[in-house]
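JOB MANIFEST
job_type = single_chain_structure
chain_count = 1
residues = 65
[input]
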Amino acid sequence: MNAMNCIEISGESDSSFEDAIRAGLTRAVETFRGIEAVQLDGEQLLISEGKVSGFRVTLTLSVAG
């Protein structure tokens, strides 16, 4: 049985949740080796002056340990 580590990260975008996920994953694969799965844990709209100003996601990475 292999040990797995879970790491929580976030990603942000000015345009969409999909781009926020992509930004988080792009950074994660540059930083961590052995990513085997990603879980989307949350989505947040960022608001400025009453308008949507950005998109933030929280992701949990499963990394082979």
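[summary]
The mean pLDDT is 95.
The radius of gyration is 13 Å.
exit_status = 0
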